[in-house]
Structures are given as C-alpha cells and as structure tokens.
Design brief:
8 strands, single chain, Rossmann fold, ParA/MinD_ATPase, FlhG, CobQ/CobB/MinD/ParA_Nub-bd_dom, 15 helices, 325 residues, ATP hydrolysis activity, Cobyrinic acid a,c-diamide synthase
C-alpha cells in the first residue's frame, strides 16, 4: 500500500498510517499543505546552545491497571525531573477521552489533540511549555470520539513525533487506565513501559491483568514497576516482590524490573492542590526525592538504537492487516 499525497500537519497522521485519519477540508489545498508541513518540521528548532542528541528519542509509556494509582502524577513529575537533568522532554497526554495532565500542571491550553485531529491547528500550536521547560501535548477531556479512536489512529499519534526526534531526548506518554486498545497500543509503541501500582488488592490484580494482556497480546514482556503511595522503601519492595512472584508463576516469560517507590506524603498532596509538580513545589520532600531518583535511574538505561522501538514495524503491520479508522 503506497501513500503519495503531500504532507500537511493533520493528515500527517493519515500519511503515517496510510489514510487512517481523514484530511481536514481546510488542508486540501496543496499550497497550504506544503506551508503547514514546513511549520510542522520547524516546531522544535534546534537551539544553538544545546547539543544535538546522539541517538533516537527514548519513549516511555507510564500506565497502571486501575485508576487512582497516581499514574498521571508520576508521569508529570518524571517528565519534569528529566527536564531538570537537561533532557529535552516531551509529555504526551494519551488519556484521550478523560485527559487531565493540563489540570495537574496548572496549564490552560488553547488547543488539544482533538483540535489537531479535527484540522483546527498545527502540531506546534498544540504543544505548550510546562514547568521546567517540559513540552506538553494536552489532550481533551469529555470527548467521547477521542476515546474511541481505532488502533491505527492511536499509533499515528505516537508516530507523528518521529519527525521531531532530532530535537527531543525523551518522550513520556501518560496513558489512560485499564486495558483498552489505546493503552495497549501506546505501551506497545513505546520502548519502555512503566506500570504504576499501589498496595491495594485491586491495584495489584489489575496491574497483573494489564501485564498479562501486554505480554500475550502485544508482545510487551519487559516492564518497569513503580510502587506508589507506600509508607517506606521496604513496603515498596514488598509490593514489587508480591507482583513479581505472581507474574513469575503464571507469566514465566515476562521480565519485571523494580524502578523504585514513591512515598505518600503531605507535600505530594499539597502540590496536587496547588496544581504544581511536587518536584518543583517541594523539591526536598521525600516524594520529590524519590521521583528524582527514579528519573536518574531511567537516564541510565541503555540508549535506544532504533528510532522508535517497534513503532515503524507496528504501523506497517497495521497497514498490512488493513486496519482502518
């Protein structure tokens, strides 16, 4: 299957997945397409004072089996911590139907991914700067059609950023909760998947279910685990061991790695109320220090050797199977 149309910003998704998304009527003009695509490729101009990264962008999907485990807070603070370390970081809100990263970070975006897909704006108009210089891609909340995108459209949202990889070091994807197609697709597209779990029976059960589906249906068999909202490091390690034993018993081919713990403290609660990342509002707090350590550990991961993990292969497989919106 061959794509031959020019490249506008919105139909860029469609071009990446050969027509999975329709081209907006306002972008049908070839002249406009060329102009808007030029704007897209300049969305992240290289700074004269910052070095070009040596390798491809590292893509990290942060997910959790159930809602309420603190996944979005982990995503936001991890992205800010990485930016504080000098990493050029982009944070994508992939909870497409019930997005709230902008609320967590105290941002007021003019446009969201829903506007981009509808053809009302370009990619660089969606991206806003968050705390610590993190580049944030906000999604919409209360948009049912965004929560019901086809798998090819999900992967298109990730793959569109491959054109910007020279100018980014890390892309953090905050997925929705559960085991929907959206969650599974974003996790499969990422090079690294982080599962956030807390010490509750429902959280552990749902985390196991998510890991099982990712492994058996999507081939994701290497995952990082964060124990969130625990009392101390020992409780975090015990929680990880509990989940690891279950996975080892029933999913022998899955490899789990303990990335660390984040304690529940008053500083974290206050930062949520202030709509600020705890790593900025209270950098000396136990929760902020724990997240900073997790960021340091991720920065020591082996550098990726391919542009986007298995994204290009996955897109090709979608096309071959004829998946359409």
């Amino acid at each position: 299957m061959t794509c031959t149309a020019p490249m506008p910003p919105v139909s860029f998704f469609a071009l990446k997945i050969c027509g999975a998304l329709p081209i907006s009527p306002v972008l049908r003009s070839t002249t406009m397409q060329s102009r808007e695509y030029a704007k897209l490729t300049n969305a992240f101009p290289l700074s004269a004072t910052r070095p070009e990264p040596l390798g491809p962008v590292r893509t990290i999907a942060v997910t959790g089996g159930k809602g309420g485990v603190g996944k979005t807070n982990i995503s936001a603070n991890l992205a800010v911590a990485l930016a504080d370390m000098g990493k050029r970081t982009l944070l994508l809100d992939a909870d497409l139907g019930l997005a709230n990263l902008d609320v967590v970070l105290g941002l007021a975006p003019k446009y969201t991914l829903a506007d981009l897909i509808a053809g009302r704006c370009t990619l660089d108009e969606v991206i806003i700067e968050g705390p610590g210089g993190v580049l944030v891609v906000p999604a919409a909340s209360g948009r049912r059609h965004m929560a019901e995108l086809a798998p090819a459209q999900h992967i298109g949202l990730v793959n569109v950023f491959s054109e910007l990889e020279r100018d980014l070091d890390v892309m953090v994807i905050d997925t929705a909760a559960g085991i929907t197609d959206s969650v599974l697709t974003f996790c499969q597209a990422a090079q690294d998947t982080v599962v956030v779990v807390c010490d509750e029976p429902a959280s552990i059960t749902d985390a196991y279910a998510l890991i099982k589906v990712l492994s058996r249906e999507r081939g994701v068999d290497r995952l990082q685990i964060i124990a969130n909202m625990v009392r101390d490091p020992n409780e975090g390690r015990l929680l990880y061991d509990k989940l690891s034993r279950v996975c080892e018993k029933f999913l022998g081919d899955v490899s789990l790695n303990y990335l660390g713990h984040v304690p529940q403290d008053d500083w974290l609660r206050l930062s949520v109320q202030r709509q600020q990342p705890v790593i900025k509002a209270y950098p000396a707090s136990p929760s902020a220090q724990a997240i900073a350590e997790i960021a340091r550990r991720t920065s020591r991961w082996q550098a990726p050797t391919v542009p986007r993990g298995n994204v290009e292969f996955f897109v090709e497989r979608i096309i071959q199977r004829g998946v359409a919106a």
